[in-house]
Design goal:
The structure is a homodimer.
Chain A lengths: L19 H12 L4 E2 H10 L6 H13 L3 E5 L5 E5 L7 E5 L5 E4 L2 H13 L3 E12 L5
Helix pairs in contact in A: 2-3
Chain A binds a DNA duplex (25 and 25 nucleotides) through helix 1 and helix 3.
Chain lengths: ~140, ~140
DNA sequence: GTTTGTGCAAATATTTTGCACTTGA
DNA sequence: TCAAGTGCAAAATATTTGCACAAAC
């Protein structure tokens, strides 16, 4: 209940309400390009003086992920990591296993390959997941 | 006690013992090339009449994974899946979402692409996972 | 005033750990 | 023998859910 931030881009669709918690989470997600866990985001919110329940953070992240507003990624530690994506287009991520920094990558070849492979095996409704992980330059 | 100390000639570092449980797990892993959860493997063992504790299954899977004998993958459900492939060579799977049937596929283009993408971003220790899913012909 | 959203506490689910007991070599 | 291996019970971790209450519209 600190700063009055009834901001900017909330073009809330019908039935969706704008709350202090939602705005705070959206702001935090906007500020970083790394994949972050729900716990991490929750802690970050607390540090900025914005108290948001952990349950609410999970609730919202799931809602955002379901609507496609953010991407999810599962770390090797078993945590689900979230990140706001720059584009709605299909793409993949190159993620640093150490710091979580992500680079968005495109792979026309991969898309084509996946489609072709599936067709050859007579599979339909094809979906694919590609996860590339490594250690980024700063973490070496 | 006059101990005859002829130690220090430890040439057998891996004092690994063969047990009924280890053999059973190895056999199950050998039988499939699909990713399977610890719970699934535990259940499969039970069905063949081989009682192995869940803890032991986890213990062994982790040991095998650490030694590089099997690969691990995290599903979207949050489970860790394990697989033992016939070769050490890298390959991927095309899995039917309905019946679970899996087809092994190779993708030299994908390997090359992933490597190149990672190098361009100056990432090291690169790993990648590709999962293609769809509905197979028999399930249409 | 009604409906959506929040968040505490408790429940689930997966995996790990403490520790006494087995067993292979 | 005796350390490696096993497995029950309980802990640790991550996420979900029940539900009373608050806030948005």
């Amino acid at each position: 209940m600190t700063v009055d931030d009834r901001t900017s881009s909330d073009a809330a669709p019908a039935g969706e309400r704008s709350t202090r918690q939602k705005r705070a989470l959206a702001r935090i997600l906007q500020e970083t390009d790394e994949f972050r866990s729900a716990q991490s985001l929750h802690a970050a919110l607390a540090q900025t003086g914005t108290r948001v329940g952990l349950t609410t953070v999970y609730n919202q992240l799931r809602a955002l992920a379901d609507s496609g507003a953010i991407d999810t990624f599962r770390s090797t530690d078993g945590e689900t990591l979230y990140r706001r994506c720059g584009t709605d287009e299909h793409h993949h991520h190159l993620v640093c296993r150490n710091c979580g920094r992500a680079v968005e990558v495109e792979g026309p070849e991969v898309e084509a390959w996946a489609t072709q492979v599936a067709r050859a095996a007579q599979f339909t409704d094809v979906e694919h997941t590609v996860e590339i992980t490594g250690i980024c330059r700063d973490c070496r």
